[in-house]
Amino acid sequence: MNPLRLIRTSTFQLAWWYMGIFGASALILVGYVWWATSTYLEQQTNIAVEAEITGLVEQYRQRGIRGIENLIRERLSTSSGSSTIYLFVDSDLKPLAGNLPAWPQGTLDGAGWYSFTQVDADGRAVPARGQVFILSDGRRLLVGQNQARLEATRELINNASLWAFGIGIVLALVGGMLMSYSVTRRIDAINRTSREIMAGGLQRRMPVRGVNDEFDQLAGSLNAMLDRIDQLIEGVRAVADNIAHDLRTPLTRLRGRLETLAGRRDLDDAVRAELGDCLGESDQLLATFRALLRIARLESGTHEGEWQQVDLPALLHDAWELYAAVAEERDIRVRPATGSGSVRGDADLIFQAVSNLLDNAVKYSPAGSEVSLELADRGADVAIRVADHGPGIPAAEHGKVMDRFYRVAATAALPGSGLGLSLVRAIAVHHGGRLEFGDNAPGLVAMLVLPKSPGGPETGAPAPRPGAAAAREPAAHTAAEQVVG
Fold it and tell me: Does pLDDT of 461 surpass 50?
């Protein structure tokens, strides 16, 4: 999975927020530990210094100056390597006893603590602090503590804090990526299933792990919704089939009776003309009904057709043969298709779509013009291009003309019901393709773009090339449906 995609996920962003909160909390915690440890060590140092100087002052009162000197020498001899500092000087600051060579330069704070610098055995300047006691005769007693241990402890805490903070950030980053990967993988599974359902696999369902977490609950709700939609689609399909059975048959019977009536010899010309108009209206009604039924089945994914490898040049030649003669009667030339290519799909549906586009082009083109039929291979896609020199479609209405029953104002007076392009779009979407429009200056360019491998139903070996238009089984009703375009 692309790491950049993980970083852009909302889960990883939440991990970043968690990382920031965790880092701030860690800094506060480390700061408190550092402050508490430093304060504790300083307090212990202060207590030790105060206890030491109290004991020395008590010895001075009991044994005098000699007693202090002897006691300092005794403690220095018995506690070699200790961090305690002793210095006893006379009124001229001349050392009398202690482990400092001279009185150190330092500062005295308001609490009576004297801060100075001591040079250790390695020659390094080490901070120290202590208390000064001045005797009545001007002599001074300095008792302090070397701060090297305290500084080392502070440095240890600082280093440990930095390492802990860095490791924590790295672990939070890795954890955020792992969590994002886990969540993204489950979302991808839902998205992948959703795309398969939108492509027509209405029996597919969202994956469920069985842990009853939020994703399982969401998947369960979506699956229940899909089950309900599937039931509704089946209901619509049943209603459509009932309509096909209960309505189309009487309409066909009515048309037959009208045709029989129109064939009677005792009718005058006016009545015969009216009956001819009624026959035309019945044909239009039957074609509209068939187109609506086919669009509904395509959009609901319930259309059942055989998918095969379709030889597009042969199919376009059949379509050209079907409309070349019709166009010639209107003094319109249909230029046969050029190019090569094949797609996997429903040959009858693709033929229906190309026929609708050709029918519209011939219907709306002026006499003496030309309609071109072209085939272009675009790598992963194949484009079937139909261009005419009619009134065209305004760019603002390119999306609207694919809606059912929508008619452009310039062509609203011509026969048709506005279902032809809706059917073409439904067929294109059924194959994973699209319907596009362009300007032919003047006229319209309609392109049916189909992917070469849309992932339709598997079939056996590719079917042989379809026969001529007259031999094609759906040709009879296909020609009838063109009037709805």
Answer: no
